[in-house]
């Protein structure tokens, strides 16, 4: 996207980077809004359908934008001024895909987790939940891999219209699949809902359209019990108020741990635009004669690292260690989060080192380009870091927050991504002002992107200390206690 904005719309690097970061922030914030809507009003599956349809509309507008985009002179890199219609289509795409993400990302994982029978023993439930999260993220990483390799290749070889057209077709297929599954999936999760509200005695968080069913079901099992607020439960308003306070307390308690993911996302996701620019200025040739890896495809190494690590951990490490110690083995969520945050320091430090060497060679050796494969250490460590933290944090939030907040629980980590995008945009602005635009420049050979990376590395080191302090203050979490 940064190549599209700078190349086809003539935007400056910092301007394009800020737009993408704000888009990323919105895309990761709206799932929290969607989670509230799903938990309180619509349910999860209808919101998935709404989000998919809205994303499809956004992709259609982006495809239309490629047809009437500004004309640019590739030799001089000068583009015609953008028209209001062109900007409307472009920014409508950003808006609609962010809203669509709010529907899909807020509900998919929580909907899947709700299908598990977590009324079994604690150890079995914890193992099943971690396995679900692992394979769910593997499927997402497979999608990322295809988009960053196959889709980028099409965009590079055949142009933006065909490349974004393929995205439209893929999104249309997604909507059709969701519509087809609507007739075959159990949308109510009735047994889980009833068992939860029998255990807690709370009805205030039940979506209004489900109350009629719950009254009927609970009357069958206990004729004296009525879950409606207008029913005959004792002091229902007092009960609801107490439950809401408990939910809020649970949310406040997990926020410090959740906030530690902001800096890690700053290390990985928020540097994507600069990685593309770095790769563009490096030697991208491969052992295949005449084939160069597109600049936008290098993130596939991080995705591959993420998936391989999860597969090895789930299929090899866990069974092997369990066999050796003669009992089920799982690393606690706090341990996994701590390892992920620590690895992020090494991750961004390797990137800063590579950028220093790349820039020095480009300036001192007459434009000699460093091989882009030197970005691999950053990608590999970034994938491992994300694999440790992202899944553990989602498992932590889903386990620690009340059942009535399960959609919110699976989207809070996305709020950290949104915050990291905003923080990254703010840091870029401050760095630009403080350094008189000498660190982040149009020609990265003339700038000091390595200095910017070392600044992020220092923040990552402070984040490790912050996590240790937060984890000690929080104490032992439920899933770790069960183990």
TrEMBL record:
Gene Ontology cellular component annotations, sorted alphabetically: membrane
Entry membrane topology: Multi-pass membrane protein
Gene Ontology molecular functions: transmembrane transporter activity
Cellular compartment(s): Membrane
Record keyword Repressor present: no
Spans through the membrane: 20-38, 45-68, 88-113, 134-154, 160-180, 251-277, 297-321, 333-352, 372-391, 412-431, 451-469
Family: Belongs to the major facilitator superfamily. Proton-dependent oligopeptide transporter (POT/PTR) (TC 2.A.17) family.
Protein name as it appears in the record: Major facilitator superfamily (MFS) profile domain-containing protein
